[in-house]
Amino acid sequence: MILDGNFTRKQIYEELKIRVDAQLAKGKRPPCLAAILVGEDPASQVYVNNKVRDCEEVGYTSRHIRLTADITEKELLDLLGELNADEAVDGIIVQLPLPAHIEESKVIETIQPGKDVDGFHPINIGRMSKGLSAVLPATPAGIMELLRRYQIPTVGKHCVVIGRSNIVGTPVSILMGRNTEPGNCTVTLCHSHTRDLKAYCLQADILIVAAGKQEFISADMVKPGAVVIDVGMHRVPDASRKTGFRLVGDVQLEDVGQKASAYTPVPGGVGPMTRAMLLMNTWQVYWHKILSEVIS
Ligand code: GUN
């Protein structure tokens, strides 16, 4: 079975649009996302453009803020301070990576946790780790949502995660081990120092690959019937395509797809779910604000 991220993303957008329309019908403003791009990295430009376009699709407003790569750290932090204070802005994202002279952790920690729709702020990570309500990082949340919507059984399963990044591997390992549905897995977190990676992979009922290495996982590393989630995204030159490249993941999908009971394609698996979760997170912080206004 293919875990279709494109289809699921569209489903989520339809659901969000209904919620937004209901707010508009009540005379309320729609959610607003501020998306900041520093510099001109082509991949980052595509990601931010997609985020802004996605906002339009569901009826959110957005502020697309483009800054040149020579902006100082202070100028960026000051701008974030203004957006934090701006009542009309619900969610803020700063596209990563940032130029080397800007400290990523300072930027992440300056965004008010209640507007941190990337879920990268230590308060959101800490709350997530404790099982408290939190804004979840978009890619791990997207993986969980895909497992939920396809009703993939996870309780008591062995989930092997490859890669321990702050954005994907570490948070998804926490979420899969939590007492939630999906969740309740026994989790093994593998990384660059893991010995005999193949032996762990072969034990995985659910294999989540966020190694950042092109076609790293071959079919002989996958247990028959496993669920395989491929978080990788790599551009491979391909003269037969109009764009000049094609996208492949961290998994050799052609062979692995034959062996797995379910898997995410690349493109069209985890990527669209990350986009959808950013919008879900933006709805979450917007709605939380509305509820707190009603209660107070
Ligand atoms: N760069 C790569 N992935 C992400 C993400 O999820 N959020 C942000 N802000 N930047 C990224």
Description:
With 296 residues, the chain is α/β, with parallel strands linked by helices. The protein has two domains: 27-112, Leucine Dehydrogenase, chain A, domain 1 (Rossmann fold); 138-271, Rossmann fold (3-Layer(aba) Sandwich). The chain is built from ten helices and ten strands. Strands 5-4-6-7-10 form a five-stranded parallel sheet, with helices on both faces. A three-stranded parallel sheet has the order 2-1-3, with helices on both faces. Strands 8-9 form a two-stranded antiparallel ribbon. Helix 2 links the parallel strand 1 (32-38) and strand 2 (61-67). Helix 1 (5-25) packs parallel to helix 10 (270-295) and helix 6 crosses helix 10 (270-295). The structure holds guanine (GUN). Guanine is lined by residues 93-96, 118, 138-139, 167.
Secondary structure elements and pairings:
Blueprint: H1 5-25, E1 32-38, H2 42-58, E2 61-67, H3 73-85, E3 91-94, H4 104-110, H5 122-130, H6 138-149, E4 158-162, H7 169-177, E5 186-190, H8 197-201, E6 206-209, E7 227-230, E8 234-237, E9 245-248, H9 253-259, E10 262-263, H10 270-295
Helix pairs in contact: 1-10, 2-10, 6-7, 6-10
